[in-house]
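From the shared-data thread, chain only:
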Amino acid sequence: MISRPFLTIVEADQIMASARATAEKQGVSVTICIVDAGGHLQRLDRMDGASLISLRVAEGKARTAVELKTPTAALEQAVASLPSMIAIENIYPFRGGVPLHHDGHCLGAIGVSGALPDQDEKVALSGAQAFAP
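Structure, as tokens:
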């Protein structure tokens, strides 16, 4: 039987706690979304004051990062040189989406939305760095 690692609830909670702490330290209200390897919602946290649209964007960033197995910041740069990429349905090429890798497998991703792009990315990266399977 083939076995592959997966993102556990405990790990998702650790990722969320680290990301939320960073957002609070920055003084920003964001939505933080964690998806599993299939891009399915595992955790979602909309902080007080975060905009409603940030729900959809955070999830879109997380799904984009997991589907392409790359940070969405890299896509932001790619779109600058190839603008037709924005025609791809459900691609969110904005900073704030980070895949969660372990032993060569992408186990999920974190997406953050609601603040400035640099702040979203910093919150997402802090969550990803807390991931220690």
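The radius of gyration is 14 Å.
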